[in-house]
Amino acid sequence: MLSIIIPTLNEEDYLPIVLESIVKQQGVDYEIIIADAGSTDATLAIAHKYNCIVAPGGLPAAGRNNGAQVAKGDILFFLDADALLSDNFLRDSLDEFSRRNLDFASFCLHPIPLKWYSYFLVNTFYNKMILALEHIRPHGAMGMIVKKDLFEKLGGYDETITIAEDHELARRAAQYGKTGILRSHELFFSDRRFVKDGWIATGFKYFLTGLHEVVLGRPVRSHFITYQFAHYKKKTKNK
């Protein structure tokens, strides 16, 4: 079984989209676990509507760890709430994961809505980079597949890291198993965080994060650079 784990906090706008894309998948036995950090909107009602298992959440790393604790599957798929799966994404990805004998894998990314400049930036500065560094410095973001026994061996996500804890997990996974970037599908994701914070500002923040790791040899555990959870919820006149 595949356990799909999604951390949430007030994701009523995006959660139905990713869940609908999951239930349309064919040929895969899966469960969906929503690790919720205390949503006050319709997130939990949506989760129950789609028969999801609900676990306690927190910041994304804590939510993912909590979700993994109740997961029944031998393979875990950590997925962001603002993602979208293309047709046959799960079947094709798991087939490739098995065929390449991987223990941990992530994906190239595809921003939506599609704009030429957003895809150019993501493809040039992220996709091509992670493919070039696939066997040198593993990366993973927004969607990661990992064998549960390896995840447990690693002790899960490091909850003391304030940003890019998913990349750090990928690099630790490479010390004990075989990692790679899956080519079967790109993972669609909302560009909301880049639109709200700015493409240049967001890119620079992650550049500083990477520079910190390379120069100092350790991930960011300072609040000088952080990821803001639920910072990107749409605003309406009634909220």
Give a verbal description of the structure.
This protein is α/β, with parallel strands linked by helices and 239 residues long. The protein has one domain: Alpha-Beta Complex (Spore Coat Polysaccharide Biosynthesis Protein SpsA, Chain A), CATH 3.90.550. Helices cover 40% and strands 21% of the residues. The chain has helices at residues 15-23, 43-49, 60-70, 89-99, 116-132, 148-154, 165-173, 192-197, 199-216, and strands at 2-8, 30-36, 53-56, 75-79, 83-84, 104-112, 143-147, 179-190. An eight-stranded mixed β-sheet has the order 3-2-1-4-7-6-8-5, sandwiched between helices. α2 links the parallel β2 (30-36) and β3 (53-56). It is globular, with a radius of gyration of 17 Å. It starts with a strand and ends in a 23-residue tail after the last helix.
In terms of structural class, how would the helical and strand content be classed? alpha/beta
User: What value does the average pLDDT take?
Assistant: 89
Number of helices, counting only DSSP H or I runs of 4 residues or more = 9
**End-to-end distance:** 39 Å
- Looking at the structure, the CATH topology is Spore Coat Polysaccharide Biosynthesis Protein SpsA, Chain A
- Share of helical residues: 25-40%
β-strand percent reads 15-25%
CATH class: Alpha Beta
Compute the number of strand runs: 8
Q: How many structural domains?
A: 1
Q: What's the CATH superfamily, by name?
A: Spore Coat Polysaccharide Biosynthesis Protein SpsA, Chain A
Main sheet strand line-up: 3-2-1-4-7-6-8-5
What is the overall shape? globular
Report the uncertain regions.
Answer: 235-239
User: Cα-atom Rg, whole angstroms?
Assistant: 17 Å
SSE pattern: EHEHEHEEHEHEHHEHH
| CATH architecture assignment name | Alpha-Beta Complex
* Largest pleated sheet: 8 strands, mixed
